[in-house]
Design a protein that fits this description.
Chain B is mainly α. Helices cover 81% and strands 0% of the residues of chain B. The chains are: A mainly alpha (62), B mainly alpha (248), C mainly alpha (222). Chain C: Required for the export of heme to the periplasm for the biogenesis of c-type cytochromes.
């Protein structure tokens, strides 16, 4: 079922290892970083808006 | 009248925000499952291509990334048309949330195309009709993002962006045709790749990876659209309720 | 219908005549950019002949784009544009007039000086005729597509650079067929096919672009 004879064969990719693994590596990197940036943006936005609401409440109660 | 009310409710950020938030984990999970299955089939099971050796395995991300880059542009144009026709707030936000992912997919397609081209064509970049069109698609994404970023007013930014998307979608076939014509006339070093008969495992691997990329794109677009919603609707009651209710 | 278009053309031409310096500047921009290439590449006639169509066309794209930010900006500033948008006649017709006027002051002069610049690149007489003709029928498409970009970026900061980001990718078919026509003549294949496709692009964009531009203007004016 598995096409490869050994793990080192799998890594070598028949001599194309550099091209194949840098393609997959770049894709994995982008797909890991993009969600991290998106969720960090989401959290900072929430924090900022919360600060704004608190500031507004303080202004209206005083 | 009732239908209209329902449509409006679904398209309203107040209902869509929690719905998108609840759906993100499922899309992520499905994407991971498809991704693992696709990688297993593509990287471990699929046989060697008799023309391109093992180097062809880049196809399992190159083709899905290219498909998604084109598909996302079409989806954005669809939202643009909806937004211009029915004046819904959600459609502009969806288009803007999708754009960075579409641009990244186009970039990935170019990057993996270069990494594929080097061993196959002997050059990192070849002015092949498909690669050139993909580059122009990336330019179109960048133009859209630059335009929407330059307009402060949300309504105008949505509508101007939507119009640009529709103009772009009308032009894409013309651009593709002209690039193809240009390419055949100049008879560059375009090698026809992926024309060799593909084994069914290869095809399945590619389809599974495409599903993985698709689900990933939906998840990331939902993440981004939620941020855009909070930002834009910060003065409404529902955002205040979300923020003070402690929901993330 | 034609009355509105001709009235707008007449008015815009009159305004343009008051600012002849702008037209001349764009023209000299075209001339200087084209003349820079031999200095950068070297004077070999074979090489220059091969590069001429592309160089002249790319310079023409950039030169027509220079005046795009001004296309609606002045009318927007003094309120004329809002009046035109509220007027009973369709805004698309007004835009058609403005696009034609823009072509008369920015595209047409390029076609007139292009053969002179072609001589610098050692083009044959046939190629010069096709070049002039190609620029003549291709530049209206540039004005039409450019108008959409100008309307979308109306009143935005950094509008000039933004217009080029939006519009240049859409100019690619015109560049390919325009330069292709000259190239095909140089290599002896005949440029008729390219020229007819170029004419088709021009007709399509003159029919379609003014209405998209009108929609973009209404969005900008809201």
């Amino acid at each position: 079922m598995i096409h490869w004879a050994s793990f080192s064969d799998f890594i070598a990719m028949g001599g194309y290892g550099f091209y194949v693994w840098s393609s997959f590596g770049a894709t994995a990197l982008i797909m890991a970083i993009e969600p991290i940036i998106a969720s960090r943006n989401h959290k900072t936005t929430i924090a900022r808006l919360k600060r704004q609401i608190r500031a507004e409440n303080r202004n209206t109660t005083e | 009248m009732k239908d209209r009310f329902n449509l409006y409710r679904f398209a309203s950020p107040a209902t869509f925000y929690p719905l998108a938030g609840a759906m993100i984990p499922y899309f992520v999970a499905v994407s991971v499952v498809f991704g693992l299955a696709g990688l297993w089939l593509g990287m471990l099971v699929a046989p060697t291509d008799f023309q391109q050796g093992e180097g062809y395995r880049i196809i399992f991300i190159h083709v899905p990334a290219s498909w998604m880059s084109m598909f996302i542009y079409l989806v954005m144009a669809f939202w643009a048309a909806i937004g211009l026709a029915f004046n819904t707030r959600l459609s502009g936000m969806m288009a803007q949330a999708l754009a960075p992912t579409g641009a990244l997919m186009a970039f990935l397609s170019l990057l993996t195309g270069a990494l594929w081209g080097k061993p196959m064509w002997g050059a990192w970049w070849v002015w092949d009709a498909r690669l050139t069109s993909e580059l122009i698609l990336l330019f179109l994404y960048i133009g859209y993002m630059a335009l929407t970023a330059a307009i402060d007013d949300n309504r105008r930014s949505d509508k101007a962006g939507a119009l640009l998307l529709l103009v772009g979608v009308v032009n894409i076939p013309i651009i593709y045709f002209s690039v193809k014509w240009w390419n055949t006339l100049h008879q560059g070093s375009s090698v026809n790749l992926a024309k060799s008969s593909m084994a069914t495992t290869m095809l399945w691997g590619m389809l599974l990876m495409a599903m993985c990329f698709w689900m990933y794109s939906i998840a990331i677009a939902f993440m981004r659209v939620r941020t855009i919603m909070l930002e834009r609707e910060r003065n409404t009651e529902w955002v205040k309720a979300v923020l003070t209710g402690g929901e993330k | 219908m034609f009355k509105i278009i001709t009235a707008v053309i007449g008015r815009d031409l009159k305004l343009a005549m008051r600012r002849q310096a702008d037209i001349v500047s764009a023209l000299f921009f075209f001339i200087i950019v084209v003349s820079l290439f031999p200095l950068g590449i070297g004077p070999e006639p074979d090489l220059l002949r091969k590069l001429a169509p592309g160089v002249l066309w790319v310079a023409a794209l950039l030169a027509t784009m220079l005046s795009l930010p001004r296309l609606f900006a002045d009318d927007h500033r003094d309120g004329t544009l809002e009046q035109l948008a509220l007027a009973p006649h369709p805004l698309g017709l007004v835009v058609t007039g403005k696009v034609i006027a823009h072509w008369l002051v920015s595209g047409l002069p390029l076609a007139l000086v292009a053969p002179v610049l072609g001589i610098q690149f050692d083009l044959s007489a046939d190629a010069l005729i096709v070049l002039t003709f190609a620029i003549l029928i291709g530049t209206p498409a540039l004005s039409g597509i450019g108008a959409i970009g100008a309307a979308l970026t109306l009143g935005l900061r950094g509008g000039g650079v933004l217009v080029s980001l939006l519009v240049l990718p859409l100019y690619i078919p015109v560049l390919i067929f325009g330069a292709g026509a000259v190239d095909a003549t140089v290599t002896g294949l005949g440029g008729e096919g390219h020229l007819s496709l170029l004419a088709a692009l021009t007709f399509a964009s003159l029919g379609f672009a003014p209405w998209a531009t009108a929609a973009a203007l209404k969005i900008a004016l809201e």
